[in-house]
Amino acid sequence: MAEEKMTRDEALARQGYRHACHVMLYGDSSAKLFGKIPIKHIVLMQMRFDGLLGFPGGLVNPSEETLEAGLSRELHEEVGVAVRVGVDDHMSSCVSSSCPRLITHSYIKKMTEAELKEIERAAVASATDHGLEVLGMVRVPLYFLKKGGGLPYFLSHSFISNSRAQLLSALRHCRLLSQGELKEAVRQAEQMRRTHSYITLAQPHQSC
Ligand SMILES: O=c1[nH]cnc2c1ncn2[C@@H]1O[C@H](COP(=O)(O)OP(=O)(O)O)[C@@H](O)[C@H]1O
């Protein structure tokens, strides 16, 4: 089902909708996998309590706080350190195709490799949600290995709501991968789904 996109202001003007705000924290990296495959970028997602992948964030009530203040508060609970997200970090808003009367807001925030590593440490050491709502932060592999390893396999996992689409559009928007690489990763992921029936690709999940 196609998603209905809108600006942040249009979203806030909608009556009778709940708002969910999630952020892709990312940055550049000089690390190399096996000492030879450049990682190039760190992109953080998380394994949620329900076994689905998604971004850090949560529900925000705009009548009580701004979307960004609410997202920063949720982030603190999930990653254990204060990460300030602002209006400038907003990327897109759309009506959820899987949850009735929910608008999902997607944010992106670039950080240094050291800051991202600190978040990964704190997410285990001090985040109140660790081991409960959040089972762990995960890095998105942005490289391609033989037989679909790397990004294609990652994309064949199951994702909450529209987070898979949010990931793809954020990777495109930030130019972390080319349009051709993204198309190829999606193509391989779809092929895996067809050929390996034990892998289930994200269907709209009713987790509202
Ligand atoms: O990463 C995401 N991107 C887009 N929507 C998401 C993501 N994670 C969760 N959602 C949607 O937003 C709703 C609320 O998100 P979440 O479960 O993180 O909030 P909560 O911890 O405040 O309940 C979920 O029920 C789901 O429909």
Automatic annotation (TrEMBL):
It catalyses: dIDP + H2O = dIMP + phosphate + H(+); a 5'-end (N(7)-methyl 5'-triphosphoguanosine)-ribonucleoside in mRNA + H2O = N(7)-methyl-GDP + a 5'-end phospho-ribonucleoside in mRNA + 2 H(+); IDP + H2O = IMP + phosphate + H(+). Keywords: Nucleotide metabolism, Nucleus, RNA-binding. It comes from the Eukaryota. It is found in: Nucleus, Nucleolus; Nucleus, Nucleoplasm. This is U8 snoRNA-decapping enzyme. Transmembrane segments: none annotated. Belongs to the Nudix hydrolase family. NUDT16 subfamily. GO terms for cellular component: nucleolus; nucleoplasm; nucleus. Its EC number is 3.6.1.64. Its main location: nucleus. It is an enzyme of class 3 (hydrolase). Its cofactor is Co(2+). InterPro entries: NUDIX_hydrolase-like_dom_sf (IPR015797), NUDIX_hydrolase_dom (IPR000086), NudT16 (IPR054754). Residues 16-164 form the Nudix hydrolase domain. Pfam families: Nudt16-like. The lineage of its organism: Eukaryota, Metazoa, Chordata, Craniata, Vertebrata. GO terms for biological process: mRNA catabolic process; nucleotide metabolic process; sno(s)RNA catabolic process. One of its GO terms (molecular function) is IDP phosphatase activity.
